[in-house]
Write a structure and sequence with these properties.
Length: 117
């Protein structure tokens, strides 16, 4: 497969993943409530409850509750996020290889660095 056709395939795959991806990971937790006489204080905790945990743009950790009925959608979104990163890494590798090939061919398309940098 040529570099261009592989790049096109990867871009298509990237776009497909981007349509449904959800950044983060799924985690489950159990909880105790505020009622002192509740069974959860005797070891039968409430849950498990599922959350999508992720980093905000500000770099803070955050979580979003995932209702049981929506769990398949969230699983698909997290799997798409992992695919997105895998495909983006492959695309970046192709781009690096392209820069090296362009330099060798003397086409001038390679990355140029400022003198003294």
């Amino acid at each position: 497969m040529s570099m261009q056709s592989e790049r096109g395939r990867l871009l298509d795959e990237l776009l497909a993943a981007a349509r449904v991806m959800l950044q983060g990971s799924l985690s489950q937790s159990t909880r105790t409530c505020g009622r002192p006489t509740c069974r959860c204080h005797r070891g039968e905790r409430h849950g498990p409850h599922t959350y999508l945990t992720f980093r905000t743009l500000e770099g803070r950790s955050s979580a979003l509750y995932v209702p049981l009925a929506e769990l398949p959608r969230f699983r698909e979104g997290v799997a798409a996020w992992k695919r997105f990163w895998r495909v983006a890494t492959q695309l970046a590798r192709l781009n690096r290889e392209g820069v090296v090939l362009d330099r060798r061919a003397g086409t001038g398309k390679g990355v140029r660095h400022a003198r003294g940098a």
